[in-house]
Amino acid sequence: MPRRTLNDAQLNVVASGSGPDTLVLLHGLLFSHRMFDAQVEALKSRFRCVRMDFRGQGDSEVTDTGYDLDTLADDVIALIESIEAHRVHLLGFSMGGMVAQRVALKRPELLDSLVLMNTSAEPEKWSKRPRFALLNLAARLLGLARVAPRILPLLFSDRFIDDPACASERERWLAMVTANDRIGATRAVRGVVSRKSILDRIDQIRLPTLILTADHDRATSPQKADNMHARIPDSTLVTIGDAGHMTPAEKPAEVNRALLDFYDPSAATD
């Protein structure tokens, strides 16, 4: 896959679709651009969809440094500035949403709209950090395949975990996690877990903004979405029912419907 030199890192970038506008999609922690396959399929006639693997994940370079969210935001800004488009629509899921908020605060003139999916503007709770540190150490020493099953409850709803009909989909999504380089993945986790709050700053965002959450999201609770919605002026909040953190895995049709309604309400009713 093609890599581009962006912000002194070799980052994997994939473009699909032929729409008149450009949509940049930012994936979640431990995943890759492939997590948005269903969304690109639904949106590729409306947008040129540009996806990038964050440093240390997917097919991007495992750099020695630069995993804090501000540096990742600079990576995305470098990507947007390299695209032949005056402004872009920006969508971020989980970690990608944390980065997207920072891009919107740093360089709002680059953006036409913002979608924040299953994400937060708040820091990681101190009570959760020891568990993440332990899982990170295990992943580094034993490999991601040994650790991935332990994060299932954080990623998925009980329904999706327990339903035999979802087994192949669970395996497909976990395969994205285990395909990552263990060193890059553990550095990325540290960058996310050590983030600082920007909740007191997001009222500065003046873009059309969709905030998407799920009723059974244990990684970034619906309350965190409510907190963003209360602070970002004129934002729209949509809750996906009967789903956990990984809404693109559990409820792709509902996610696509919410996106189509946000980007083009007439297309959502076709």
- Our estimate of the beta-strand percent is 15-25%
Q: CATH first level: which class? A: Alpha Beta
> What would you say the CATH architecture is?
3-Layer(aba) Sandwich
Number of strands: 8
Question: Which descriptors apply to this entry?
Answer:
single chain; 270 residues; alpha/beta; Rossmann fold; 8-stranded mixed beta sheet; 8 strands; 42% helix; globular
Structure description:
- The chain has helices at residues 37-43, 69-82, 95-106, 129-142, 144-147, 152-155, 158-162, 167-178, 182-193, 222-231, 247-250, 252-263, 265-268; strands at residues 3-6, 9-16, 21-26, 47-52, 88-93, 111-117, 209-214, 236-240.
- It is an alpha/beta fold and 270 residues long.
- It has one domain: Alpha/Beta hydrolase fold, catalytic domain (Rossmann fold).
- It has an 8-stranded mixed sheet, sandwiched between helices.
- Helix 3 (95-106) links the parallel strand 5 (88-93) and strand 6.
- The longest helix has 14 residues, at 69-82.
Short account of what is shown:
This protein has 270 residues and is of the alpha/beta class. The chain contains 13 helices and 8 strands. The protein has one domain: Rossmann fold.
Topology (SSEs and partners):
Elements: E1 3-6, E2 9-16, E3 21-26, H1 37-43, E4 47-52, H2 69-82, E5 88-93, H3 95-106, E6 111-117, H4 129-142, H5 144-147, H6 152-155, H7 158-162, H8 167-178, H9 182-193, E7 209-214, H10 222-231, E8 236-240, H11 247-250, H12 252-263, H13 265-268
